[in-house]
Amino acid sequence: MNEVRIPYMPNKTIFILAIFFFVACAGVMGNVAASNDRGLILNRIIEFSPQGATIFYWVIRLLDCLRK
Prior knowledge:
Radius of gyration: 19 Å
Mean pLDDT: 88
Helix content: 55-70%
Largest sheet: 2 strands, antiparallel
Low-confidence stretches: none
Number of strands: 2
Shape: elongated
């Protein structure tokens, strides 16, 4: 069988837009976490107190930062 090699050439514009998107998401989640004063209900199944919701938002922000 012949081996086929295809060079990987990422699109720089898409890459830069993706970085901008995740930086913006991390910024928004950091702002939400810093100014949170309410609880959170996820799909009417999991309920968080205001403190639990703040921790949840910070974890989401951290995971978004680790994605980069």
